[in-house]
Design brief:
Elongation Factor Tu (Ef-tu), domain 3; 6-stranded antiparallel β-barrel; alpha+beta
Length: about 375
């Protein structure tokens, strides 16, 4: 091969090598651009997801369950004894015997105190003597009248005198009975205001009697709640004097009228004597108007008020919320019972719902996120 042919051969090889090198470089650049394009798409998709997460409203939810609930009306009242009677003197004289003391239990008609009674006894004896004489005179006049020996006028006057003396004797015996002061009711002596030797005047206050079997509290219920109250309902009673105990009473009577001054109805509840409570105690009373043992419970903290209606936001599987009307049929201080629109297991928003609208996307915060993540992990492991 001559020199010219060799030069042409090297020139061809050089061109071929340059072409191969150019193609390699071009393909490398193309592949690199494709990789960068793919990476940018993935990054863009991640950014969009992050932005959606940032736009989602943070909330806290709870799952609805069933449980007991009761409707209660709250009152404050003083404990009273319906049968509390002051005992007054019905005669004036000195006390000669005192038979009861404060704290003693007495029966109706039991003798409590004896007053000096000489004057009253003498009066009874004097009238009894006069009555005996008048009775004998009347019998004699009656025999004479039957024989037509005396006029009818004389006979009538004799009978009238006998009747008047009988009335005087009854009055004298009654005055004598007033010197013995007896219990007007069965109960306990809560106060004694006399002692032996005291001069008692007519209508002087001697004792106070209280029947502890007649303890009551009087509750004044607003007329708007009257339909919820009925005889037999339970009343729970507590006192600051006995902070660890709860006493149970029962509605005994509901007044048939509304007080026009206060717009309330008087409700009287009996309190068992065995409770050990004392008249005059200040009590907090809870009148239980309704009880449900298996109610669908919605926490009041989840409610959103809108034009006198209450709503809750229920969380769906797509992490959006639905606005649900909550119609309470029963409520207490923390819960309401609903019977339609919601079911056991529904998740409702209890925090962060103030600015929510129907269809808003939300995200769970705090421990609920960790719990949800844990549930997903357990589900994946199970699969």
């Amino acid at each position: 091969m001559n020199t010219t042919d060799q030069s042409q051969s090297w020139s061809s090889l050089t061109k071929t090598a340059l072409l191969v090198l150019f193609l390699a470089v071009s393909m490398s650049g193309w592949i690199g651009c494709g990789d960068r394009a793919n990476g940018s798409a993935e990054d863009l998709e991640g950014d969009e997801t992050a932005q959606e997460e940032e736009k989602a409203i943070p909330v806290e939810v709870t799952e609805l369950t069933r449980g007991p609930i009761e409707a209660v009306l709250h009152f404050s009242a003083d404990l009273e004894a319906e049968e509390a009677v002051p005992v007054f003197a019905r005669a004036a004289n000195h006390v000669v015997r005192l038979l009861v003391e404060e704290g003693d239990r007495v029966e109706k008609g039991q003798l409590m105190v004896v007053l000096e009674s000489d004057e009253q006894r003498n009066a009874v004896q004097r009238i009894e003597s006069q009555l005996d004489k008048a009775r004998r005179d009347f019998e004699r006049q009656q025999n004479l009248y039957d024989q037509a020996l005396v006029s009818e006028q004389v006979f009538i006057e004799s009978r009238y005198e006998l009747e008047q003396l009988q009335l005087n004797l009854d009055d004298a015996r009654r005055q004598l009975s007033y010197t013995q002061v007896r219990a007007p009711i069965a109960g306990t002596v809560t106060q004694r205001m006399v002692k032996v030797g005291d001069q008692v005047n007519l209508n002087q206050h001697l004792f106070d009697l209280v029947d502890f079997d007649s303890l009551v509290v009087r509750l004044f219920v607003p007329e708007s709640d009257l339909s919820r109250v009925a005889v037999g309902q339970q009343v729970r009673l507590t006192s600051q004097a006995l902070p660890d105990r709860v006493f149970l009473g029962q509605v005994a009577r509901v007044a048939p009228i509304v007080d026009p001054q206060t717009g309330t109805v008087k409700v009287t509840a009996d309190v068992p004597a065995e409770s050990g409570l004392l008249p005059g105690l200040f009590l907090e009373a809870d009148l239980v108007t309704a009880v449900r043992t298996d109610a669908l419970l919605v926490p009041k903290r989840s409610l959103v008020l809108d034009e006198d209606q209450a709503f809750v936001f229920r969380l769906g599987d797509d992490q959006t919320v639905e606005k649900i009307l909550a119609r309470p049929v029963l409520e207490d201080s923390s819960w309401i019972e609903v019977r339609e629109g919601l079911e056991v297991g529904d998740r409702i928003v209890i925090a962060g719902q103030a600015g929510l609208k129907n269809g808003d996307r939300v995200r769970l915060v705090g421990d609920q996120v960790e719990s949800a993540a844990g549930d997903e992990s357990e589900g994946a492991a199970g699969v």
